Amino acid sequence: MAVATNRQILLVEKPKDKLASTHFRLVESNIPEPKDGEVLLRVRYISLDAANRAWMHGATYRSAVEANTVMAGGAIAEVVSSKAEGFAPGDIVFGDTGWQDFAAVPAKHLTKMPRIEPLTHLLSVYGIAGLTAYFGLLNVGKPKAGETVVVSAAAGSVGSIVGQIAKIKGCHVIGIAGGAEKCHWLTSTLGFDAAVDYKDGAVYKALKAAAPKGIDVYFDNVGGDILEACISQMNLHGRIACCGAISQYDGVPSATGPRGVPGLIVVKRLTMQGFIVMDYMDQRDQALSDLQSWVVAGKLKVQEDVIAGIENTPQALIGLLAGENRGKRMVKV
């Protein structure tokens, strides 16, 4: 049965503390009409990312999400109609559609995607998550065979791929995750050499045991105290790829950690670099070729967490921020 209206989820209030379902509202509106240069899209899968929460604080690499507007978010969508060259009904694209059934988006802001099965892979291993892991580890972290690589939020969408790529590159890999079940999954299924449960509260000591020779590359998804624990154990000329700071996004940011950073960076001659995946899109074809070959060869396992129903999107994001997910979380609209 055809959808006659456009369901939208609005951010009705910017949270001052923890994000809650009351900060959102589901409304219905008319399906938009595309203008010249725009494409009408039917949203298929909405990507959920910790960055969604950061956008509520203010402008980042994109403009802030304001109250009483459609919640922003990337998605895999299908072209319904087009008033732009190069796009035709049935095409599959990635774009910032927001949390809604339909969106009219300027064609210049869309990326054409191949029609593969499952389509979910276009948001996980072949999407922003996989490309972030690939470029952040290889272009920023620059791991060498035999080196020790540590990744935080290791059971998440990016971290789970980072660790597997590091193993493919011949590194000793340690994941930091929340809970014994996730840690066991990292070592038993994804092939990590060791896993540290940050919920045990002894991250520094556990890292010391897992990485007795120190850390050469740290892929940071969380910031805060875990970043502090890793920096203090970095080897000379170690590299830190700063991907995110999820510990600081939801609620009141922690006032602790990382302490003593400037001195350690100087003494150990560390390189600490932030990055955004869009910085490397000129190398996207090579990255996708590598990722696809590793998946086909069984060297890279894809873990996805798909939740059904656009009405469940707010709670799905809240759960992601609480660490509920394993692998890439998304919502099937």
Mean of all residue-level pLDDT scores:
93
Under CATH, the topology of the largest domain is which? Rossmann fold
Largest sheet: 7 strands, mixed
Quickly name the level 1 CATH class of the largest domain: Alpha Beta
Short description:
The protein is α/β, with parallel strands linked by helices. Helix content is 26%, strand content 27%. Helix 2 (128-141) crosses helix 3 (159-168).
Notes on the structure:
The chain is α/β, with parallel strands linked by helices and 333 residues long. It has 2 domains: 6-124 and 303-332, Quinone Oxidoreductase, Chain A, domain 1 (Alpha-Beta Complex); 128-277, NAD(P)-binding Rossmann-like Domain (Rossmann fold). 26% of the residues lie in helices and 27% in strands. The strands form 3 sheets. Strands 3, 5, 6, 7, 8, 15 and 16 form a 7-stranded mixed β-sheet that branches. Strands 11-10-9-12-13-14 form a 6-stranded parallel β-sheet, with helices on both faces. Strands 2-1-4 form a 3-stranded antiparallel β-sheet, with no helix packed on it. Helix 2 crosses helix 8. The protein is globular. The chain starts with 5 loop residues before the first strand and ends with a strand. The mean pLDDT is 93.
